[in-house]
Amino acid sequence: MHSTLFLGIMISAVTAQAAGRPNIVVFYTDDHGYADLSCQGVFEDVRTPNVDALAARGVRALHGYSTAPQCVPSRAGLMVGRFQSRFGVESNGSSLDGFNREITIAQRLQQAGYITAQFGKWHLGPSSAITKHGFQHVYAQNSQAPFFANITLNGEDRPMSTLRPEMYHIDACSHAAASLINRYPDKPLFLYIAYRAPHVPLDAPQHYLDRFPGEMPHRRRQALAMLSAVDDGVGLVMRALKDKGLRENTLVFYIGDNGAPLKIYKEDAPGGGPGWDGSLNDPLNGEKGMLTEGGIHTPYVVCWPSKIPAGQEYPHAITALDVAATATAVAGIKTDPGDMDGVNLVPYLSGENRAAPHSVLMWRWVSQSAIREGQWKLLRGGDREYLFNLESDLEEQHNLAARYPEITDRLRKRLAAWAEELSPPGLAKTRSDGGAWDSYFDYYLDGKPPSRTPQKTNRPARPTPSLALNSAWQVRNGTLDEVDHGIQITANGEEARQMPFLARSGLQLAGPVTAHVVLRSTENGPLSFSWRTSKDKVFNEESRISRTLEQSTDWKTIDITLPAESTLIHIRLQVPRGVTTIKSLELRPAGGQSVTLLK
């Protein structure tokens, strides 16, 4: 055959193959309780018509699972397609070195010719490095603060750098995703749209809040409003696909990263900072931070009109790990044994294979572990052990471990054998998860009353603390509240140009001074110490040290040495926008008495 003719035939074949491959869209929500899709049929106050339409045209999974009850590990598992503790990402505080060595689904798809794009919350390292994990386009807005992006809101290329928000973060991610669909109508797309909703800080604009009038907790209204914005975004993306004739050949996943954080009491605290996010897990037991159903059994919808029959309520257990395995299979990407822990769901959801996709699902998170085999689930927390029949007791109210010791023993052995494959190996028992089984397990699984009386809902905001906080400290560009764990700084409105900071003057600390701070923040951003010595009339730029503080619900401990060569007299601690909670702050001089934030 003539070489030119042969080359032409090959190019045509490759083009035809590319045209036949589906677009893949993953909508990933954040701290989204099982109850909060209207198609779940649990509550009447939630309204998600666009997600409901996805379920009506595809599959609503009755038993869809995340891989962890927390943000970072669940996202790592989703992106790689392997259980995250195989590469050391056990919890939010884990090193990401293992993740950085893994091949993500975005990398596999990009190498296969897909246009890949990430929108919203990343939470797997610096947003500026997302392109290193296979995403060609990035629009990482998850709040109203500046964020990293290499495309504009309208899908046009720009250098990777910080970009100021133009729209509410949920709306902006949806708009940017739709723009890329319009930009690439003739190329296969992989869009990962990770909305930071309804995760705190609760920040729904008024026009979304107005959709939910009537009496209800403030935080419930905020959650419903944020999820309504997500639902609008799903509708916008689906319309963009339809307008380009791509809807029928697009595989769509809609999954929650973990259950809602209820904090046991569902306290309707003022503001939108840490605490209950307003979402609900009913009828499931437990919440974020637990391997009960309420912590890992999440909303899960799959839709591919040209391949998967509509209107299904799928009865078998599936997992977020199946996304990567399904995506690689439908894209025609070859993988090796051990590359994926999930399965290609298409033969199962299409009806070609009537068996259950998984004989067993297993989890380990810090001091908890669990295994589900058919209707049986074994849950371990420290030394506590529970056996549930989820077919008759999805609410996990009846511990059958003593009644069925042979089933308990068999499941424990299988779980323990699997855990030996993880990093580090074994079933952890240490109380390194904040003692979840002391409070959460007591309440949710052992039926003990809460350890304290919940606060009344809709109470007025607390005044600035006068007892716990040393009055010599002052806050600027934000407001200060006393909370259970310390003090909470809430930044002024997003339009404010200055970051919030704590300040204290009148000090006499011999340099160098070590600053020891334990805190957490709802936003990514710089944590900076600035200081002035007895020789300085003003704050100088060289007398400033910054660290990056990642958004997290876990406490972060940071030690920074301030290399003051003379007596330090004035200090400022700048924190990210959003809500920052400081559990403790201590300034330790080279000699003499330390200075603390709290009395």
Low-confidence residue ranges: 1-18, 456-468
Give me the CATH superfamily of the largest domain.
Answer: Alkaline Phosphatase, subunit A
What is the helix content?
A: 10-25%
- Number of E-state strands: 25
Overall 3D geometry? Answer: globular
Mean pLDDT rating? 90
Kindly summarize this structure in a few lines.
By secondary structure, the protein is of the alpha+beta class.
What would the keywords be for this entry?
single chain, 599 residues, alpha+beta, Alkaline Phosphatase, subunit A, Arylsulfatase, C-terminal domain, Jelly Rolls, 3 domains, eight-stranded mixed sheet, six-stranded antiparallel sheet
Characterise this structure.
The chain has 599 residues and is an alpha+beta fold. It folds into three domains: 3-356, Alkaline Phosphatase, subunit A, CATH 3.40.720.10; 369-444, Arylsulfatase, C-terminal domain, CATH 3.30.1120.10; 474-596, Jelly Rolls, CATH 2.60.120. Helices cover 22% and strands 26% of the residues. The chain contains 13 helices and 25 strands. An eight-stranded mixed β-sheet has the order 4-3-7-1-8-9-2-10, with helices on both faces. Strand 12 (368-373) and strand 13 form a beta hairpin. Helix 6 packs parallel to helix 8. The chain starts with a helix and ends with a strand.
